[in-house]
Amino acid sequence: MLSKPNTPDCAICADNPDRQNNSLSLKISFRNARRQAKDYLVYFVTIVMAAALIYSFNGLVFSKELLELSVRMEYLPAMIVFASVVVVCIIGWLVNYTTGFMLSRRSRELGTYMLIGLEPKQVTGLFMKENLIIGIAAFVPGTLMGSLLFQALRAILLTLFGISYHFRLSFSPKAGGLTLVYFVLIYLFAQLKCRKRIRSMKIHDLIYYEKVNEEEVIQKSSRRRRIFVISIVFGIMGTLLLMAGSTIPSFAGAACIIVFLYGFFISFSSGVPAWFESRPEKKYRRQTLLVFRTLSAKLASMGIVMATISLLFTAVLISLGLGILFSRMFDFRAQQSCFDLFISDTDTGVGFKEQAGSGREIESPDANAAGKFQEYADYVHRNLSVADELQYPLYLSKDDTLTDYLEANTRFSSFYGTDMVMRYSDYAALRAMLGYPQAVMEPGQYLIHCMPYLKKGIEEYPLSEEYDKSVTYAKEGLTPGNVYTEIFHQYLWGGNGYNYILILPDDAAEKYAMHSICYAVMTREPVSEEQYYDLRDIFYRTGTRHDGIFDGDSYGTIDAKSQAQRAEASEVAMFVLPLYYLALILSMTTVTILTIHQLSEMNRYRQQFTLLRKLGMEPREMIKALRTQLAVYYAMPAVPPLFITVPLILNFENIVEPEIMMGTGGALMILAVTLGLFAAIYAVYILSAYSGLKRNVLPEHLICPDRR
């Protein structure tokens, strides 16, 4: 409260020097900032956490240690800066919205300042100083906390790259400076908007600004009820379209859900009361009338905000889901590199001659093909510690029976059109290199090595009546044998078959046309990044097909297990961590706005429950009513996003390779983890709001009956 105008504490209104005015203004600003930080503790903590997150990710941008882990990390600063720009916009919206909300709640106080003689620019400066003090008070501990959080991110990345982590607390002036720039932009934008708003308002408008609510978009009650019904129809349509699974219906379903969200929230204040008016037996049952009257009044004043928050919750769930999916996908791809070094190239007509040791020397009329693989071998023997190696051919059969069966009965999509074939002697040598148990092939049999998701379909293939198994390799007198599913470099083209390969006796395999040659190496030490890029230079210089790029019937690949692990770590840093970063900031921002609105109603709730107590409501019913109000309030914006995200996450199985979603990486597991992470963040804010309201709204003897 303000002191009397004639006392020294009100020197702002007297004929005192400007320095004394500024000193007292700053004193009042500090007092009010301290009060606001206490009243809006959830907001203050969220800003501190936002500062910590922004600083920690800025630390990744300026960390030479992390950027030098791999050449792929050169793109990390751009990805982090892009994510940070989005985060700054989100935090800017939170600060701007909360500052405007504080202005509406304190408008009577600010109007009183004008009544006692302060100029509008002085009131504006007073309010701006208060919020700047809050920003500075949040920035300082936020950056200190961010230093610890950066160490957690550093530990994650070093572990992903297989490097031992040692704690080393440090502060990056560059990261702190960039974080400060972000905060200045955030608060400058919010303060300028409030400055413009206060200076344009008259004293009367400012004093009664608190009573001004969000104007309802649809004014007529009958029209709101129609919109309410139509929005429910759109919600059902959108859910069904999302569950259809394909791309176009999914986009149409998402559009319907968005229409549903805004239509539902702007019409709820009329739709639900109208529904209860026609059902009096439900309207007056227990706390129903109290809960829904309170909620409909709240939504009448913040319907658009609720709809926007619901959309942002959708973005949170999608970001979390995609982050988990990408993490699973990158990890899976890294695991498929089972050889320390693997090189392949299409070069038909190449033969081999046996040489001493486990390797094979190329003997071919194509001198270029022989030369370039010899160059690989020379580099490997000169620079790497070789434990075992093998150069071997792959063949392509003319039979497409099994391929057609798998395409019709599994999610397999053919790359070659017919079966890829390997000699049994090469297969046995490769299994020995990888430390796998010996694969037994009885006389008159052929084996199949495939990725796990195809095993069931392949095992059922001989039982299928639609396909005559006797056609496949019957001319060789072969029948299906065992099916093996260990990791065997079959994930992408250019490996040992695309998702599967047939293992035939040597004489049977050699009757087919040679399709490609491969060079597999196991080393005693991991292939360094420098060595990998030296080999890739040979790969391009000698005319080997570019890795991972399909060109007609020609393809090739060069891959190293250590490089695949470095690629996984870099991709996690560039894609997964920013997605979690965005999801965390979005969730904290949206739940903070919900909680601020709820905690700002303490006085009204206190009056409401005091009256209910006088009317005879039992203490147990009062506590139950408060819990129900909070549960419905927080569930309102959180439930509709589930209609969007649950079908989308379950549809992840249709947008990535089928083998990625097997086992613990399945869509149901991703959905469970996504909802669990979101619920954990949400629960923290809900519990803080419930604790604050219960402590300040209900009489003390209702909370602690022993003190009655």
Description:
With 708 residues, the protein is of the alpha+beta class. The chain has 23 helices and 10 strands. It has helices spanning 18-39, 41-61, 64-67, 76-105, 107-115, 120-160, 173-199, 203-207, 221-244, 247-277, 280-283, 288-335, 367-383, 401-409, 424-434, 452-460, 506-509, 529-541, 561-599, 602-614, 619-650, 667-697, 700-703, and strands at residues 341-345, 351-354, 360-363, 386-396, 420-423, 445-450, 479-484, 500-504, 513-523, 556-559. Helix 6 runs antiparallel to helix 7. The radius of gyration is 34 Å and the shape is elongated.
Give a short overview.
The chain has 708 residues and is an alpha+beta fold. The protein contains 23 helices and 10 strands.
Helical residue percent? Answer: 55-70%
Strand content: 5-15%
Radius of gyration: 34 Å
Structural class: alpha+beta
Key terms for this structure?
708 residues, two-stranded antiparallel sheet, 23 helices, 10 strands
Set down the secondary structure blueprint.
Elements: H1 18-39, H2 41-61, H3 64-67, H4 76-105, H5 107-115, H6 120-160, H7 173-199, H8 203-207, H9 221-244, H10 247-277, H11 280-283, H12 288-335, E1 341-345, E2 351-354, E3 360-363, H13 367-383, E4 386-396, H14 401-409, E5 420-423, H15 424-434, E6 445-450, H16 452-460, E7 479-484, E8 500-504, H17 506-509, E9 513-523, H18 529-541, E10 556-559, H19 561-599, H20 602-614, H21 619-650, H22 667-697, H23 700-703
Parallel strand pairs: 5-8, 6-7
Antiparallel strand pairs: 1-9, 1-10, 2-3, 4-5, 4-9, 6-8
